[in-house]
Structures are given as structure tokens and as C-alpha cells.
Amino acid sequence: MGELRKNNNPPPGADHGMAAVVSRNIAALLERRQTEELAKGFQERVADAVTAFTGSMPFVYIHLVLVRCLDSDQSLLAPLPDAV
């Protein structure tokens, strides 16, 4: 076997085959993701944009303001009712 090492680094001069495989796989995944992104149609791009917006905090804030404004019993400037 080899010498006992205290860290997980391979000994100097060791085969870096695993690192090359991992690098190749990462590059392949990035290339595939880019290819799939470029292949998306208009509807998929719109759906992605809508999903990204509705999952954001600006959407939450706008929604809170609109719900408060559209509430038939109160206006935006009216104080909140006291808890009973």
C-alpha cells in the first residue's frame, strides 16, 4: 500500500484520474444545461419568468398591497382593526 497520510490529499505524483473525470462531468452538465436553455421555446421562457417573479419577495409585497387596497371594507391608509 502507500504511506499513511493525515489529510485526504493524494501523495505527490499520484494519478489525478478522478479529478479529471469530475471536471469532465461538470463540463458536460454545464454544456447540457446551456443547450437545454437555448432550446426552450417562448412559452417555457414566459413560464420561467412568471415562476421566478411569483417566487420573489417583490411579488409578496405587491400582493400584500393589492389585497389591502382591494379589500372592500378598508382602504390602504385605514388603520388595522384591533384584535379582539
Could you say which structural class the secondary elements and strand pairing correspond to? mainly alpha
Rounded radius of gyration (Å): 27 Å
Q: What ranges have pLDDT less than 50 throughout 5 or more consecutive residues?
A: none
Percent helix range: 55-70%
Structural features, described:
The chain has a domain at 17-56. The protein has three helices and no strands. The chain is mainly α.
How do the strands and helices of this protein lay out in sequence?
Blueprint: H1 17-39, H2 42-54, H3 57-70
Short note summarizing the structure:
The chain contains three helices and no strands.
Characteristic terms for this protein:
84 residues; 60% helix; single chain
